[in-house]
């Protein structure tokens, strides 16, 4: 499998439970690039780039989230790898 990109919108009880920090830790452990941020509607948005097998692991983790999170839904949009990011960061809106 080659490299790819996935854009997620995660909804449910995902703010105030260290979702962004835990997502960042997970992405760094998997060697993925991209970012994660809170949205004003209470959801979390994330973009991951890297090997498709590791992206699938990150998406699976996002469905569960950290302790205290309750993920209701995830919108996934897969796309082509763009090598757009040098690291994985938490963005603050």
Structural commentary:
The protein is an alpha+beta fold and 93 residues long. It has a single domain (3-83), classed as 2-Layer Sandwich (Alpha-Beta Plaits). Helix content is 27%, strand content 42%. It has two helices and five strands. It has helices spanning 19-30, 52-64, and strands at 3-13, 33-38, 44-51, 70-80, 88-90. Strands 4-1-3-2-5 form a five-stranded mixed β-sheet, covered by helices on one side. Helix 1 (19-30) packs antiparallel against helix 2 (52-64). The longest helix has 13 residues, at 52-64. The chain starts with a strand and ends with a strand. 30% of the residues are buried. The mean pLDDT is 97.
Please name the defining characteristics of this protein:
single chain, 93 residues, alpha+beta, Alpha-Beta Plaits, five-stranded mixed beta sheet, 2 helices, 27% helix, globular
| Sheet of most strands | 5 strands, mixed
- The succession of helices and strands, N to C, reads EHEEHEE
Taking Cα atoms only, what radius of gyration do you get, to the nearest Å? Answer: 12 Å
Number of strands: 5
Specify the number of helices: 2
Per CATH, which architecture?
A: 2-Layer Sandwich
Summarize the topology.
Layout: E1 3-13, H1 19-30, E2 33-38, E3 44-51, H2 52-64, E4 70-80, E5 88-90
Helix pairs in contact: 1-2
Question: Would you summarize the structure shown here?
Answer:
The protein is α+β, with helices and mostly antiparallel strands and 93 residues long.
